[in-house]
Design a protein that fits this description.
Blueprint lengths: L1 H19 L17 E2 L6 E2 L1 H25 L1 H4 L1 H17 L6 H30 L6 H18 L6 H43 L2 H4 L1 H19 L3 H53 L42
Antiparallel strand pairs: 1-2
Helix pairs in contact: 1-4, 2-5, 4-5, 5-6, 5-7, 6-7, 7-9, 7-10, 9-10
């Protein structure tokens, strides 16, 4: 309970100090903001309290949006004390209800919520990097992220640290960790693309482009999709597309090869039966020749039993994919 009261007191002190700072002085030292009214240069009109309240309401809406984003990022769990202090300050500020424009104070709170959101994202990304062992792919960026997040944790513990300062440091940490993630998946995507192309060549070799046209085309499109994702700075998406293409082409090539082997085996068995039958017929012809007379059930020598087959050229059906499209990326 004492901790909550302390947080509220600190937050209220912050709000009070911020409110005090809204009064701006003119060149002659007189305050230009009095009772929420600002006179125009011409002196013929006054922007009253309604406009100031409207500005505050717009700022409040922005703060609430940033607060929700911070919650979704996990800031409420990762930075509980700082989040509670922000909430206490927000509650104290909205409770003032003095008709004055508090946009500046709301903007400060928004910056603080944004900072907590970015810091929470940075910590979650760091956790993923650690779990996947990605730091070695860009150690310098990882070290920069570690330094920035440690500095943020120190700054956020000091209530008077400006929100923009906090957000700058949180963003610095997130960007450093993101660089590790991005460079890692670019590397993985390039490696997996080579694997996908190799598996596609295996499928080409067993004429899968003829035997299973639709599947072959779908898997080739996975590689093309990966190239598009890579080109639009989505290396993880590209990696997953290449990985799916490689696995599917591998399975397709093995399945087509297995079925071709079965067909070849059946063909050889049929050929053996034909040869055995020919040997039997030759022996029978010696023992009991039929002569030149037609025999019912036996076609003439020049009879066409089947229409001529027209085979597609497998090489013409191969989907060409530029192997060097990634280049040195």
């Amino acid at each position: 309970m004492k901790k909550i009261v302390l947080l509220f007191c600190v937050a209220f002190a912050f709000v009070f100090a911020s409110c005090k700072s809204t009064t701006q002085e003119t060149d002659n030292g007189a305050a230009s903001l009095v009772d929420g009214q600002i006179e125009t240069e011409e002196g013929g009109g006054v922007f009253g309290q309604e406009e100031n309240v409207s500005a505050s309401e717009n700022s409040l809406a922005a703060v609430e949006a940033s607060r929700q984003a911070a919650i979704e990022a996990g800031a409420k769990d990762l930075y509980g004390a700082a989040f509670a202090a922000n909430d206490a300050a927000l509650e104290a500020l909205t409770a003032l209800d003095d008709g004055k424009d508090h946009s500046k104070e709301y903007n400060e709170l928004k910056a603080r919520y944004d900072a907590l959101a970015n810091a929470a994202k940075a910590k979650k990304l760091k956790e993923r990097i650690d779990n996947e062992g990605l730091a070695k792919n860009s150690q310098a960026d990882y070290d920069a992220g570690e330094k920035a997040i440690a500095e943020f944790d120190e700054l956020v513990a000091v209530p008077v640290t400006p929100g923009q300062t906090l957000n700058k440091k949180a963003t610095e940490a997130y960007n450093a960790y993101y660089a590790v993630y991005f460079k890692s998946y670019k590397k993985f995507a390039n490696e997996e693309r080579k694997n996908a192309l190799a598996k596609k060549k295996d499928a080409d070799a067993v004429k899968a482009q003829i035997a299973r046209k639709d599947e072959y085309k779908n898997y080739a499109n996975m590689i093309i999709k990966g190239d598009q994702q890579y080109a639009t700075s989505n290396p993880e998406g590209a990696y997953n597309s290449y990985k799916d293409a490689a696995a599917n082409f591998d399975a397709l090539a093995k399945d087509v090869a297995a079925k071709r082997a079965e067909a070849q085996k059946a063909l050889e068995a049929a050929k053996a039966k034909v040869e055995a039958s020919n040997e039997y017929a030759a022996q029978a012809d010696i023992e009991k020749p039929l002569g030149d007379e037609p025999v019912a059930g036996i076609e003439a020598e020049d009879t066409v039993l089947l229409e001529k087959d027209e085979f597609e050229n497998p090489d013409e059906k191969i989907i060409k994919i530029d192997e060097s499209v990634q280049g040195a990326n």
